[in-house]
Structure formats: C-alpha cells, structure tokens
Amino acid sequence: MKLMVNGEAHEVAATTLAELLAALDYEGDWLATAVNNDLVDKANRAEFQLSDGDRIEILSPMQGG
Amino acid sequence: MFDLLGTTLPSRLLLGTAQYPSPAILADAVKASGTSVVTVSLRREMAGGRAGEQFWSLVRSLGVRILPNTAGCHSVKEAVTTAKMAREVFGTNWIKLEVIGNHDTLQPDVFGLVEAARILCEDGFAVFPYTTDDLVVAERLLEAGCKVLMPWCAPIGSALGPVNIMALRSMRGHFPDVPLIVDAGLGRPSHAATVMELGFDAVLLNTAVARAADPVGMARAFGKAVEAGREAYSSGMLEPRDVAVPSTPTIGRAVFS
C-alpha cells in the first residue's frame, strides 16, 4: 500500500495506523497523528484501517511562539 | 496575581519557547522572566526521532502552564486539526489559535479565525485567538465563544512595539471585562510597559527575548517591565498637560530682594 507519511512517499505492508507507526519506528506518548487531515487519537490507532493513498501526519512537541 | 480563565497565575508575562540559543538558555530565561505560561507547538517528527520527547521533557520540568499554538496554519481545517492534536499531546484545552492570512505580514485571516474559533469553542477548547486590533472582529470572536482576546501590536517578530496606540486604547475601552493579552510585535521592555500601562491584562512575547544578546537578562527585564506597567496602571497615572506645574511648594518660599 502506498502512503504519504509526513510528506514523504512510503510503500508499506502495515494495514492499521498502529502497525504503520511501529514499522516506521515511531513510538512514544508524545506523538499525535492525523490521517487525511483529521485527528486519529491514540486510542483508535490500533483499529484505524489505512487505505491506499492516505496522507498521514505524525507530529510531536516543538518550540513555539 | 492574575486570574486567567479561572486559573490564578503569578505573572502577567507569557513567553514563547522558540529561537533560543540552547535548551538550557530557554530554561533559564523562563525562570528569570517569572512567567507561568509558555507557548509550544507541534511539528513533524522524524522516524525514530526523539526531538519532540526531549523538548517536551524540558518544558514539563519547568513547572509552568502550557499554551499550545496552531502556528503556521493557513486554513480553518489545518488549525482545527492541529488544535485537536495539541490537546491530545499536551493534555490541555487551552489553544493559541493562529490562522495566518498573509505570508509577508503574518497577519491573521480574521474570517477563518472566527470560523475556527467557533468550531473549537463548541468542542470545549479555551481559545486564545491571535487577532488584530479590529473591534468588530473582536466582537465576532467573543460571540464565537472566546473568553480572552490576543491582539497584535505589530507584526510577529517585527520588534516595532505598539504602532497603533489609539486602537489598543479603544480595544481596552470597548472590552473592559475581557482579558486582553497583547501578542506579537513587542521589541523591548518599554513596549511591554506601555501596553500594560494602557490596561492590558498581560503580554505574550518570544522573539524579543530569545534573540536578545542575553536572553536570560532580557527575560528578567521584560518580567520587571510587565510588573511595573501593571502597577502603574493600577496606581492611577497623571494625565499629560501642556503647562508646567511646580512640584516644590511655593508657599513659604524665601524672598531675597
């Protein structure tokens, strides 16, 4: 399945958002995720089914003004 | 002490966490400023990265309240989703709402701002909208559910200070009971003191401290200026007058002629 993750193209075997995070070595409770511009909260990542062409954003805390 | 949305804060200075020379200097500046609220953001994390974790760990160690922002968002949808992501990560319903409308001036898209504010307020957020000094927009934001307003006094990072005193004064006069925080454009402590003397409840700044030659010293200076400006406002200042008035009593003056 082809996905865009943080703006980069990826070809992955993962079918859920939780599997995708593990496959790409993302872990930690400081991460927030969105798929196709909508929040997918932590509790729903394991059951969230990904589809070909999905755009995933994985964000973490950063300095800000 | 300052009551902000039911939270009692010891300082009327809110400080940004970006652009400091090092994490250690950021931590020292926060302490020196006396601030009790810092702003933070969310950005893309690299695969296997720990940058976000390290920064978040540092911020938590400071023992201050967190005000996440939606900096860099140019649409309502981006801002709303970013706010929801911030609420999950930072564990607060406070959000500094930015919907940027112009790349050059970084001025807010006030139409999108009102729309995003309405959506987020209905979703339980305490929205701190980064807005202009326009009174009509301010009224719309209050109608949308905002309990606090954050007008700019000059473009973000410009260090110009209050460029339209009349507009700020007018805003204070129109909304006497709404917490008003000047956000963006402050360059030096005297600017902060000026807007505090006008009766603004607090100021939020970042670049003026972070990019100073000595950010820790500048943070301390801003902390003092905010305090001085507030105390001056509370103490009742003299109105300017066009004639000289002697300060030393004239009664009992010696006559030598």
Automatic annotation (TrEMBL), chain A:
Pfam families the record matches: ThiS (PF02597)
Membrane spanning stretches: none
Domain of life according to the entry: Bacteria
NCBIfam families the record matches: thiS
Name this protein carries in UniProt: Thiamine biosynthesis protein ThiS
Species, as recorded: Mesorhizobium kowhaii
TrEMBL record, chain B:
GO molecular function, one term: thiazole synthase activity
Record EC number: 2.8.1.10
Pathway assigned in UniProt: Cofactor biosynthesis; thiamine diphosphate biosynthesis
Annotated active site: K96 (schiff-base intermediate with dxp)
Subcellular location: Cytoplasm
One GO CC annotation: cytoplasm
Coiled coil: none
GO BP terms: thiamine diphosphate biosynthetic process
Cross-referenced InterPro entries: Aldolase_TIM, Thiazole_synthase_ThiG, ThiG
Keywords of the record: Cytoplasm, Schiff base, Thiamine biosynthesis, Transferase
Keyword Ribonucleoprotein listed: no
Transmembrane residue ranges: none
Principal location class: cytoplasm
Reactions that this protein is recorded to catalyse: [ThiS sulfur-carrier protein]-C-terminal-Gly-aminoethanethioate + 2-iminoacetate + 1-deoxy-D-xylulose 5-phosphate = [ThiS sulfur-carrier protein]-C-terminal Gly-Gly + 2-[(2R,5Z)-2-carboxy-4-methylthiazol-5(2H)-ylidene]ethyl phosphate + 2 H2O + H(+)
Residues of the Thiazole synthase ThiG domain: 5-249
Matching Pfam families: ThiG
Binding positions for 1-deoxy-D-xylulose 5-phosphate per the UniProt entry: G157, A184, G185, N206, T207
Signal peptide range: none
Family the entry assigns: Belongs to the ThiG family.
Functional description taken from the UniProt entry: Catalyzes the rearrangement of 1-deoxy-D-xylulose 5-phosphate (DXP) to produce the thiazole phosphate moiety of thiamine. Sulfur is provided by the thiocarboxylate moiety of the carrier protein ThiS. In vitro, sulfur can be provided by H(2)S.
Assembly, per entry: Homotetramer. Forms heterodimers with either ThiH or ThiS.
Protein name stated in the entry: Thiazole synthase
Lineage start: Bacteria, Pseudomonadati, Pseudomonadota, Alphaproteobacteria, Hyphomicrobiales
